[in-house]
Amino acid sequence: MDSKYQTYDVIVLGGGPGGYPAAIRAAQNGKNVALVEAGELGGTCLNRGCIPSKTLIANGERLKQVREAGEFGIDTGAISFDFAKMAQRKDRIVAGIRKSLEGLILANKIRIFRGYGKFLSKNEIAVGAPDEAILSAPKIVIATGSEPREMAAFPFDGEKVHNSTTLLQLEKLPKSIVIIGGGIIGCEFASLYIALGVKVSVVEMMATILPMEGESVSAALTKVFVKKGIAIHTNGAVKTIDKNGEGVTVRLADGQAIEASIALVAVGRTLNTNNIGLEKAGVAVGANGIIPVSDTMETNVPGIYAVGDIASKWWLAHVASHQGLVAGDNVSGKTAHIDYNAVPSVIYTDPEIATVGMSLEAAISANYPATVAAFPFQALGKSQAILHTEGFAQIVIDRHTGQILGAQVVGYQASTLIAEMAIAIANELTVESIAETIHAHPTVAEAWLEAALLVTGSPLHLPPKIKKS
Ligand SMILES: Cc1cc2nc3c(=O)[nH]c(=O)nc-3n(C[C@H](O)[C@H](O)[C@H](O)COP(=O)(O)OP(=O)(O)OC[C@H]3O[C@@H](n4cnc5c(N)ncnc54)[C@H](O)[C@@H]3O)c2cc1C
Asked: Is the pTM of this model over 0.90?
């Protein structure tokens, strides 16, 4: 047989946070697995997304801590920073994790093929250069992910008009930036750049930044951003981005013109499903390139599964990985299902924002008799001790049953705090179970205990509400 024609139990197309967990799980289940990756292992998350952005964001956090050191009686003298070194640190961290990931995949005896993969039929994938092979398997997992969406009117040039990928590659800070899109990615970069002393403007088409997160969350971040000096243009439709010697001029439909050194266009993602031969396999593709799947992650074609951004309304690495594990079990003859009841989502702004389950607005529009109570970090001893008093933790409950429907937290370590509420919602806990759980003191997690006491009408560290007679 042609050595370029190889047979496996399972082929996984794409080695990002959706694909590699699927491959590892199938290998753990005793399957002979091939993983095809056209670019770098770890996908968007490791190379162009979560990890490089959070590594840079950590620089802004550290700088803030150093600047606030005087409050703690620590004299630092003059403070300066070198952005080029920050960028190098980010690259080192990404490269290190990528190396470990490759080792992990190989340790699981998964064969890695480098090259662009395309379906030839429902059981075959052709892998392009450099590895050039034709692979066959009865089960295939598609995990090809997404790319930054480009607007025809203002294409990316990687110099003055950036997407998130090219912005993460900068080695020199711009003097100013205009960010088009006030969603998660846009807000994270706005928060990072203002922390590093860059002048920041955000243009958002909708009436608020973070329009999907519920009124209380977007209002809280707007307040913080305005206080930090970020110029926010909501209801702003960008007509053109004109490049000039100095930088860019972003012109809005209402006649405003915003000048900046560079622009970031962060207006969504394009799914990588239109050039991988899905038609040859008979895999159906829906609106915007999304692949419809069942709760076992199987597509319309039995034996072909899809995971990650291409198969999800959640464009999050941890959702992709969870789907990957479900698919990895199902391609191995086990039965696993995905449940999206409790998906935590974090926005790494300063302060961090984390949510799980329903916002108050979503719960009311789903006809729940919902109510909410928010506890401010200002009222916690630990928050005062560590000088992180900004923000609140709030719990949305069903008034009749006490079931926790959702939770939102804006504040220090929100990304870690949200895990408690994710477990509560995933296990259908009531707010009483939080109120009755002893929370360690002093911790910022006490905010959940206090919010639970508040929402049930028995606050401990807030005065009772005065009832109007
Ligand atoms: C700036 C930024 C920050 C982010 N921050 C976070 C965060 O903090 N937390 C979070 O949860 N999510 C975050 N995300 C989202 C997260 O990165 C994605 O949801 C996640 O990477 C999706 O995983 P995936 O496996 O579906 O796709 P991807 O990570 O895009 O991986 C797909 C892989 O498939 C490969 N591929 C594509 N086509 C082919 C082909 N035909 N043949 C072979 N290989 C192919 C690609 O090279 C890529 O390696 C962020 C995204 C961005 C852009």
From this structure: yes
